[in-house]
Design brief:
about 210 residues; two-stranded antiparallel sheet; eleven-stranded antiparallel sheet; mainly beta
């Protein structure tokens, strides 16, 4: 700008700009319902993905039809969480018709003989340390029972819970991660010699 031209500020022109002060994002305690339901058949967001453990993660797929119920039980000083989640096995897909026919067959998942897989649990919660917050994930490890092909195994699952507001309605986003050995159910994994060839991993996201 040449020296003979006066530089005028926005304030001098009467155009003072309002600057918003930065504020830290804080989490607030969520006062939410005690019973939650998810059902993909009703259009609820339900994403259940699976894959064989690395280095065989290219063997992967997802289940399209899932349902479940989650309850927070508060009896004074005692606080519990209970849940049951079910996958319809005929909805399991690996993205190709020939692969789907193979994994759904009698010698694999046997979806006609065992149409569902189920995970259920009831665990105590520490009322002093467990709370749900808007804007924050609450993570907890849960030991439950996974049942498939008439067999149940103890299964540890990492759960993450976060309440959100969507279209003016409070929803609960639930994320779960777990894995187990396919040999526990008489199945085999990848045709190689890696140490985790029979380990299958699951990644679940639900909006309840």
């Amino acid at each position: 700008v040449p020296e003979n031209i006066k530089v005028v500020s926005w304030e001098e022109l009467g155009l003072k700009m309002n600057v918003k002060e930065k504020s830290e994002k804080t989490a607030s305690v969520a006062d939410i319902a005690s019973n939650w339901v998810v059902d993909s058949a009703l259009g609820h967001k339900s994403n259940v993905q699976f894959r064989l453990a690395p280095p065989n993660e290219n063997y992967c797929g997802f289940a399209k039809t899932n349902s479940g119920e989650l309850k927070f039980i508060n009896n004074g000083s005692e606080k519990k969480m209970a849940g049951v989640f079910t996958v319809k096995m005929e909805s399991v897909t690996m993205g190709e018709a020939d692969l789907d026919s193979a994994i759904r067959a009698k010698d694999m998942l046997n979806v006609l003989g065992f149409p569902t897989a189920k995970y259920e649990f009831e665990v105590p919660l520490n009322p002093e340390s467990f709370a749900l917050y808007f804007g924050r994930e609450t993570i907890i490890d849960v030991l439950g029972k996974f049942t498939f092909k008439n067999k149940s195994i103890d299964l540890k699952t990492e759960f993450s819970f976060e309440p959100i507001i969507k279209k003016g309605v409070t929803q609960l986003v639930v994320i779960a991660k777990f894995q187990f050995d396919l040999k526990d159910f008489g199945l085999v994994g990848a045709p190689d010699s890696s140490s985790k060839q029979d380990i299958i991993e699951f990644f679940v996201t639900l909006e309840m």
